[in-house]
Amino acid sequence: MNNRISSNMMYDQSVFLMLSRQSKMNQLERQLATGQKLVTAKDDPVAAGTAVGMDRVLAELEQLGANAANVQNRLGLQENALAQAGELLTRVNELTLEANNAALSTEDRKSVSAELKSVRDALLSLANSTDGSGRYLFGGSNDGAPPFSSVGGSIVYNGDQTQRQVEVAPGSFVQDALPGSEIFMRIRTGDGSIDGSAATGNGGQGVLTNVSRDGSATWNGESYTVRFSGPDTYDILDELGNPVGGGTYSEGQDIVFQGLRMQLTGVPAAGDEFNVGQAGNRDVFSTIDRLVQALNMDTATSADRTAQQNLLQSSLRDVARASEKMIDARAAGGAQLSAIDNAASLREANSITLKDSLSQLRDLDYAEAIGQYQLEKASLQAAQTIFTQMQSMSLFNMIR
């Protein structure tokens, strides 16, 4: 097979060589102007695809950062609201102790009652706090309307029990503000597991000051009634009214039975009863309402005053549990805020790694690019020189 070298073929090759060098120089000029190696995807399709994937991950990290900022704001506002609520409950405790002073007059107790009502209204306002964007902090996922409202003089919860989880870093979630039902409504009475009360209609002066478990025995979870047959004797009755024990009593002495311990002051009368059993739930607003009710009781007789003191003592225990609930809620919120800080560190570390990888893929090495540009420029000049010389070549020049 014969291969012929023609002037047209050599011309085409020279033009192709110059155009390819010119194209490479144009690409290098764009890279030098933008500072980017990947000006278009065709510069390096594999690297461009990888870079797009990294951009997507960086955008997700930015969104997670926005999520974290939003939930951090809500948790911070929850902390502020709960701190104020705790201060209000401290004031309730102070007022209750003040009201339990026998030296107070009826008018004094009415003044205390009025302040307690004001504290209740302030607590309701805190329970309906917003996050600054029109969403309510303590409504759970149903946070578009006030979660608490007054119905027939009682406070009801209109939100739900959902506590949202928010992703704040890849695979890392934190919990949003607690639903208000868990903070203000579902509060255990008594000591949190056991509660006691004086029966309505007691005629003596026995005041139940505390009820708790006795560490020397195990309580079976049942309810019992301590019924006094005289000022210094009592019987223990189970839930069915069957006697399960009894004993003698002297003022200030603890009554211990079935793994339980009751502390009484004063002298009960025959027929007086005190009940003890599993603690129930009572919302903080009802607790304050009971205090107001106690302060407005008629205390004309010693039995009435004793009934008032029993109600005040019971309310003091409930206020203590409500205060603990606020502290627990603040602790839970603080743990979530700490998790947000840790998530920020993780996002920052991931972001730095991704940006470094993107820089290696996209950012131009100016020294290398300038060297390549000079090389391509020299190659283009050489190709132009060869093309010029080739144009002047002719067989006629050889035979002259």
Outline of the structure:
The protein has 400 residues and is an alpha+beta fold. The chain contains eight helices and twelve strands.
Strand content: 15-25%
Counted by DSSP, the helix tally is 8
Secondary structural class: alpha+beta
Binned, the helix content reads 40-55%
Spell out the helices and strands N to C. Answer: HHHEEEEHEEEEEEEEHHHH
Taking the alpha carbons of the first and last residues, their distance comes to 32 Å
**Oligomerization category of the chains in this entry:** single chain
The CATH topology of the domain at 55-189 and 318-350 is f41 fragment of flagellin, N-terminal domain
Strand elements, count: 12
The main β sheet shows up as: 5 strands, antiparallel
Rg over CA atoms, rounded to whole Å, is: 41 Å
Give the name of the CATH superfamily of the domain at 55-189 and 318-350: f41 fragment of flagellin, N-terminal domain
Coiled coil: 54-81
GO molecular function: structural molecule activity
Subcellular location: Bacterial flagellum; Secreted
Keywords: Bacterial flagellum, Cell projection, Cilium, Coiled coil, Flagellum, Secreted
Structural notes for this entry:
There is one protein chain. This protein has helices spanning 7-34, 45-99, 106-127, 180-185, 284-295, 302-362, 366-391, 395-399; strands at 148-151, 154-157, 165-169, 172-175, 194-198, 207-213, 224-230, 233-237, 243-248, 254-257, 260-265, 273-278. Helix content is 54%, strand content 16%.
Task: Walk me through the topology.
Layout: H1 7-34, H2 45-99, H3 106-127, E1 148-151, E2 154-157, E3 165-169, E4 172-175, H4 180-185, E5 194-198, E6 207-213, E7 224-230, E8 233-237, E9 243-248, E10 254-257, E11 260-265, E12 273-278, H5 284-295, H6 302-362, H7 366-391, H8 395-399
Antiparallel strand pairs: 1-2, 3-4, 5-12, 6-11, 7-8, 7-12, 8-9, 10-11
